[in-house]
């Protein structure tokens, strides 16, 4: 088939792993005022064996410990690719972003004497702020790394973007 590139499992694993480092931002500590530091290329998060075990239940701790960093990255990518098409669409990226964020960073203390209606309104505003940040992060990922503009990050796009210098 024209345009198809054959890859060994090791190369494919390295490619997926590299893509994951771009796609998975670390959003802890984000404020509604900004999207925070872009940590798409943060290898530490993707090498978190506990996080990987949380997502890939069929792998034993020994399996994970024996994986190369590229294999762990590939499995991390694969575990977030819910439709198994080797692409992360906006919703899959949103799931990664929201899963790796500090929910409490959006919460404000309840004012003394707050009514149930006021609490509901405050909670709704916090949710809207959180979603605005998440959507901004997804848009940023797609604008920087979706090179063919199909609205998804392919494994190959991720790997290529991992090799770029931060900020380019």
Seen as an oligomer or otherwise, the chain set is: single chain
| Helix and strand run | HHHHHEHHEH
Strand content: under 5%
Q: Please, how many helices?
A: 8
How many domains in all?
1
Distance between the termini: 32 Å
Region (Disordered): 104-127
Protein name: MCFD2 protein
Signal peptide: 1-29
Keywords: Calcium, Repeat, Signal
Spell out the blueprint of helices and strands.
Layout: H1 9-23, H2 43-46, H3 49-55, H4 61-65, H5 69-80, E1 87-89, H6 90-99, H7 116-145, E2 152-154, H8 155-162
Antiparallel strand pairs: 1-2
Region (Disordered): 104-127
Protein name: MCFD2 protein
Keywords: Calcium, Repeat, Signal
Molecular structure report:
The protein is mainly α and 168 residues long. It has one domain. The chain contains eight helices and two strands. It has helices at residues 9-23, 43-46, 49-55, 61-65, 69-80, 90-99, 116-145, 155-162; strands spanning 87-89, 152-154. The protein starts with 8 loop residues before the first helix and ends in a 6-residue tail after the last helix. Residues 11-39 have low confidence and may be disordered.
